[in-house]
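Risk register update: the risk of archive-format incompatibility is retired. Evidence:
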Amino acid sequence: MSIMQVANVTNHGNAIDVFFSTGDIPSMLSFTMPLYDDNGSFVFEDTMMHEFLHTVINTCLQSYEYIPLPIVEEALPFLLAAGYDATVAQKIQPKIVESEVYTMCKQFRD
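Archived output:
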């Protein structure tokens, strides 16, 4: 099962598809982060990643109580790269603190 896939797409950005199962029901949420405008000019800035991840997390949390642990483990390095503190992962999945990924990322940031 794929957890997260980042794929080049033919529109103005990169697509992030989040695949997961809740119980026996497979689910997928899709998001696109803009990289280019209508003229083909590169418009991506590092600050856009923070806003984009915020949108992804909030959308997932509105639909589900917690984002599944494997997805949070996969996303944690991206959250750190976007400037989030490692503890933000606790809000989206409390069990993350028990994982090796969380421990390693926390040590890297501290």
